[in-house]
């Protein structure tokens, strides 16, 4: 589970570095398209466990609810290559009563070259019924604290967001 510390300021952009592994690459030494998902999801799981003290399995076992992927949008901008260190940034960029959108960004190690962007939309599900259910108040409060500000998700296209990220990287303002 997780418990909010009301006196703590939680970071909204979580980041880590990862080495692109040979086994995950194609014969051209580029990261296989499907493997981007593994790198993103593994990084996010580590991010929320380390920074937010959130354990997905514990939450699932105690609440009988979970987030189920509803939609992905991914843009492959510049290939990640074998043995390259990359930076992975993950953020909550939108939520409502039963929906969560997570943004994943992969750059080069130095936050200068955009590699890929992924938006994952998840629905909050009661696993006993298999139906959508509203986020409980403590989850909504948590999202209030960690949701990245300044993104008008409902009025921003995925491609427009990629352009903004590229510009922020160029200006050194992304992280």
UniProtKB/TrEMBL annotation:
Q: Which UniProt keywords apply?
A: Hydrolase
CDD domains referenced in this protein's UniProt entry, alphabetically? 4HBT (cd00586)
The record, for InterPro entries, names: HotDog_dom_sf (IPR029069)
Q: Does the keyword Zinc-finger apply?
A: no
Q: Which Pfam families match?
A: 4HBT_2
**Lineage: superkingdom:** Bacteria
The entry lists its GO molecular-function terms as: hydrolase activity
Query: What is this enzyme's class at the first EC digit?
Result: hydrolase
What are its E.C. numbers? 3.1.2.-
Q: Name the chain's protein.
A: Acyl-CoA thioesterase
Give the source species.
Flectobacillus longus
- Gene3D superfamilies tied to this protein: Hotdog Thioesterase (3.10.129.10)
